């Protein structure tokens, strides 16, 4: 086993880990505030990528395209809440999850209708195709992915910790009855959480498209891995989700790099599942008291 | 056939046993750093109604949960009818003859009142997947029996008109009675009740007290948690007072009422 | 008469099954028998598809409808049934009629440990875990290519031995729908029985905890796992029949997409009603065929897009307006009429 292979795997793992962490954070935001398992999260990521590609091909400069894509995706997130989730008052957790599945199907179908079957891609944000470091090859987009995730995490910490809105969201997640009694509108917070999750997903989607390409059906596998990432580390705190994402990414990349027998996908996922089942409350200990 | 089908014979057997029905020996349970129950010891005699009273948070519900196997004590032992049960899974303790009606009753929302009560009979029946799916004669037989027993029980409590209603359509008092009927279908020898009088009006309180006294006359042992002390004093044979998880006093209602420590810390305020 | 013989007679009488055949199932039976069997193998294969998915769905009635455990991973057992059945015939040359029960048993055996492991979890997270399990299964099937044929799958799977005076498709059609009726009867019986009540008592997705069934003496874990195994067996049988019907199987048929779709069928039809599995399956499969063949011709656009949108819209609308599924429509209409009269 060459050191460069290990390094390569670690770097890929870190990159993948950031993708899954970003996915997990979107799931975390919605689940934390509304207890809804948003199985359409992957679709937001897909939309972010697809829309960016489209806007770019229309001649919009990259940054503008990303911004537009994020805005449109956020609108779809709002649509999910307003049209699908909110009307289902008093629905059970399973009904809500199925409703998000319905939404995901609608998005997938519409995307297929508009964009067709093919995979679409973007050029790397800075143009260079790859960097070589100590014998390992880093795809040029990788630093952007990692950077995006870091910015996302920092931004979220700031948002939840310092801003009024963020604190209100946290209040809803931790203590819904108490939050309502101090005048926080749960419905508004729920809407906000869906929009935030959509926005996070879209940013992630735009950033990873140069690396992984995008197509109408990439949503569901992303959602599944995102779910695993979100719950593995512990869904009750953001650090857990980030840890979960990194673990899923590393497991995938390390197994692919070090076990090229074809079973690596199954083994990686299997190990992660076993780890999760042995500690379903999440790897990180629960936050004690008010965090 | 099945001895459990007849409540009276079940209770007769229980009455014939030796020693207390339930025994708590130095039982403690902690949630992290909080000691919810601290070194509690007492016994519940066969055929008596024993009330555990104390302010909220005193550890009463925790004690009930442990008795039923829903929670494991961190120290001490719990004995039921001569068997050590503090390490047993809940459904096995239920099979031994202990069942509980929770404070919030928890009727099954997805079935009718009749079905809810018939579920109580699960423990002493044994139709399985094969018998049920093929509707074997034995399965049909057993079903008929359970149905009859459930209707009988509901009628005895005055609820015959509610058989096919769903829990969401019932009043709180009615839900409590259905919950009791369901528990009674288990043919328990020990009935655990968590705040059974909560939310009842004077007429319902009266009816419940009479029902419990009738059950006791038939040989049932009842362990009850309450914090409405005056009602309890009327129904209970003996009382145990818990305060911050510790046993403060034990004895007949009169003895406890006059106990200085109890007056000072609990009945006084 | 000797008391021993009396007792033996009594015991024998107990074992004679008295299955109750729902009136509607009898009607279904008659309809199927009289159905003018067209030469259209296409139509028959659609009806077969509906039937197979209905069988998988009925397992979900028990698992999800009654016990409240959402499984978005039945593809694992559908696939196990198909692959085991196919391999037993291809590798060991046994008859598909023998392979089918073996494959069903294999699905059940696989489900037991998986169920034990994942059903300790409570709530909607179970759904997420079943998705992961399905994904692992998919990867495994693709990688173990010497056994399963990998991504290309297995072909030339032998057919059932069947009476030659009818076409094979016709035979499979009758076999599948007889299976559907059998499953319908078994499931309906289970729903209204001690077992059905025990399963329903475990359903905590709405409210409630698992404490209550426990203190009533119901071994919650046992019933959850039993329901999971039961659903797996249903799916396994369907998988086996599918394999010997089409004679070609490949991993995509047993992927997450199929699992989610089957769950949607049951939810659409009515997750607590065995008929819901049939209604939901008919709706989705029918809709799919209609949209796949017809819509692109009329509206243009890639095939596959319209059904996806349709699944989504139909699912959302049904869950919002008829949360108990389409089978609850008659009851809802009754209520509405009663409400108007007041």
Give the structural class of chain C: mainly alpha
Mean pLDDT of chain B: 88
Beta content of chain C comes to: under 5%
- CATH topological fold name of chain B: Rossmann fold
Tally the beta strands of chain B.
10
Helix content of chain C: over 70%
Largest protein interface, residues of each chain: A-C, 45 and 50 residues
Distance between the termini of chain B: 55 Å
Number of helices of chain B: 11
Number of domains of chain B: 1
Strand content of chain B: 15-25%
Quickly name the level 1 CATH class of chain B: Alpha Beta
SS content category of chain B: alpha/beta
Would you write up a description of this structure?
The complex is a heterotrimer of chains A (291), B (269) and C (342). Chain A is mostly helical and 291 residues long. In chain A, 73% of the residues lie in helices and 3% in strands. Chain A has eleven helices and two strands, in the order ααααββααααααα. A two-stranded antiparallel ribbon of chain A has the order 1-2. In chain A, α1 crosses α6, α2 packs across α8 (186-212) and α9 (219-233) crosses α10 (238-258). Chain A is globular and about 60 Å long. The mean pLDDT of chain A is 86. Chain B is α/β, with parallel strands linked by helices. Chain B has one domain (3-19, 45-69, 97-267): P-loop containing nucleotide triphosphate hydrolases (Rossmann fold), CATH 3.40.50. Chain B contains eleven helices and ten strands. Chain B has helices spanning 7-15, 60-67, 90-96, 113-119, 129-134, 137-156, 172-184, 202-217, 229-235, 253-258, 260-267, and strands at 22-31, 34-44, 49-53, 75-80, 83-84, 98-101, 190-194, 221-226, 238-243, 246-251. In chain B, the strands form two sheets. Chain B has a six-stranded mixed β-sheet, with helices on both faces. The longest helix of chain B has 20 residues, at 137-156. Chain B is globular. In chain C, α4 packs antiparallel against α5. Residues 12-18 of chain C have low confidence and may be disordered. Chain C is an all-alpha fold. Chain C has a domain at 41-255. Classes of the chains: A mainly alpha (291), B alpha/beta (269), C mainly alpha (342). The interface between B and C is large, with 45 and 38 residues.
């Amino acid at each position: 086993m060459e050191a460069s292979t290990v390094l390569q795997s670690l770097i890929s793992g870190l990159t993948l880990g950031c993708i899954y962490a970003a996915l997990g954070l979107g799931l975390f935001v919605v689940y934390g505030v509304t207890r809804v398992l948003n199985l359409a999260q992957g679709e937001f990521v897909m939309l972010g990528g697809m829309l960016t590609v489209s806007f770019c091909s229309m001649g919009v400069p990259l940054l503008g395209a990303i911004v537009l894509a994020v805005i449109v995706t956020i609108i779809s997130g709002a649509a999910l809440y307003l049209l699908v989730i909110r009307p289902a008052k008093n629905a059970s957790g399973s009904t809500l999850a199925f409703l998000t599945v319905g939404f995901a199907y609608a998005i997938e179908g519409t995307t297929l209708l508009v964009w067709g079957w093919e995979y679409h891609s973007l050029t790397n944000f800075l143009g260079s195709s790859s960097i070589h470091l100590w014998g390992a090859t880093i795809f040029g987009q990788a630093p952007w992915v990692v950077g995006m995730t870091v910015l996302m995490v920092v931004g979220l910490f700031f948002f939840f910790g310092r801003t009024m809105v963020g604190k209100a969201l946290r209040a809803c997640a931790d203590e819904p009855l108490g939050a309502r009694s101090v005048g926080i509108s749960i419905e508004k917070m729920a809407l906000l959480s869906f929009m935030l999750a959509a926005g996070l997903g879209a940013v992630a989607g735009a950033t990873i498209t140069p690396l992984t390409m995008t197509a109408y059906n990439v949503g569901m596998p992303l959602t599944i891995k995102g779910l695993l990432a979100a719950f593995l580390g512990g869904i009750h705190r953001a650090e857990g989700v980030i840890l979960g994402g990194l673990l899923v990414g590393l497991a995938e990349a390390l197994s692919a790099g070090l076990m090229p027998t074809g079973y690596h996908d199954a083994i990686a996922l299997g190990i992660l599942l076993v780890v999760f089942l042995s500690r379903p409350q999440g790897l990180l200990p629960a936050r004690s008291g008010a965090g | 056939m099945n001895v459990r089908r007849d409540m009276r014979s079940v209770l007769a057997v229980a009455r014939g046993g030796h020693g207390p029905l339930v025994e708590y020996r130095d039982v403690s349970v902690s949630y992290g750093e909080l000691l919810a129950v601290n070194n509690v010891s007492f016994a519940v005699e066969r055929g008596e109604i024993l009330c555990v009273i104390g302010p909220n948070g005193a550890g009463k519900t925790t004690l009930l949960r442990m008795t039923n196997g829903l929670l494991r004590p961190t120290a001490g032992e719990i004995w039921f009818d001569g068997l050590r049960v503090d390490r047993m899974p809940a459904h096995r303790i239920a099979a031994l003859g202990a069942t509980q009606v929770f404070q919030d009753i928890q009727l099954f929302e997805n079935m009718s009142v009749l079905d809810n009560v018939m579920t109580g009979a699960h423990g002493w029946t044994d139709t399985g997947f094969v018998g049920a799916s093929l509707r074997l004669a034995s399965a049909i037989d057993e079903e008929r029996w359970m149905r009859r027993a459930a209707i009988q029980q509901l009628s005895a409590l005055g609820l015959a008109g509610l058989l096919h209603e769903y829990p969401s359509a019932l009043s709180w008092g009615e839900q409590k009675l259905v919950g009791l009927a369901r528990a009674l279908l288990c043919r328990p020898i020990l009935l655990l009740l968590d705040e059974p009088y909560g939310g009842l009006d004077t007429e319902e309180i009266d009816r419940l007290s009479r029902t419990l006294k009738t059950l006791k006359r038939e040989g049932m042992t009842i362990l009850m948690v309450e914090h409405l002390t005056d009602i309890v004093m009327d129904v209970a044979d003996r009382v145990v007072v818990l305060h911050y998880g510790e046993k403060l006093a034990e004895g007949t209602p009169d003895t406890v009422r006059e106990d200085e420590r109890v007056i000072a810390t609990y009945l006084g305020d | 008469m000797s008391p021993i013989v009396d007792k033996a007679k009594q015991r024998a009488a107990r074992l004679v099954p008295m299955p109750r055949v729902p009136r509607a199932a009898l009607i279904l039976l008659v309809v199927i028998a009289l159905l003018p069997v067209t030469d259209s193998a296409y139509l028959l294969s659609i009806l077969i598809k509906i039937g197979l998915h209905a069988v998988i769905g009925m397992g979900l009635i028990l698992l999800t409808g009654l016990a409240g455990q959402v499984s978005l991973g039945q593809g694992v057992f559908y696939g196990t049934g198909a692959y085991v059945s196919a391999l037993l015939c291809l590798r060991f040359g046994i008859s598909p009629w023998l392979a089918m029960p073996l494959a069903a048993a294999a699905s059940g055996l696989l489900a037991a440990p998986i169920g034990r492991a994942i059903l300790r979890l409570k709530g909607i997270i179970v759904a997420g875990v079943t998705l992961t399990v399905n994904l692992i299964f998919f990867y495994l099937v693709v990688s173990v290519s010497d056994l399963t044929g990998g991504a290309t799958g297995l072909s030339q799977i032998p057919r059932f031995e069947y009476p030659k005076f009818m076409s094979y498709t016709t035979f499979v059609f009758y076999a599948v729908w007889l299976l559907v009726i059998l499953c319908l009867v078994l499931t309906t019986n289970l729903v209204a029985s001690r077992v059905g009540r025990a399963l329903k008592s475990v359903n905590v997705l709405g409210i409630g905890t698992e404490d209550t069934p426990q203190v009533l003496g119901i071994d919650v874990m046992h019933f959850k796992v039993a329901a999971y195994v039961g659903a797996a067996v249903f799916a396994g049988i369907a998988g086996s029949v599918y394999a010997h019907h089409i004679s070609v199987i490949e991993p995509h048929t047993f992927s997450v997409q199929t699992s989610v779709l089957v769950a949607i069928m049951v939810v659409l039809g009515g997750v607590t009603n065995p008929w819901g599995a049939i209604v939901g399956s008919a709706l989705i499969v029918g809709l799919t065929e209609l949209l796949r063949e017809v819509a692109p011709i009329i509206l243009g656009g890639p095939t596959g897009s319209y059904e996806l949108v349709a699944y989504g819209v139909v699912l959302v609308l049904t869950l919002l307006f008829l949360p108990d599924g389409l089978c609850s429509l008659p009851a809802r209409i009754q209520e509405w009429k009663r409400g108007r009269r007041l």
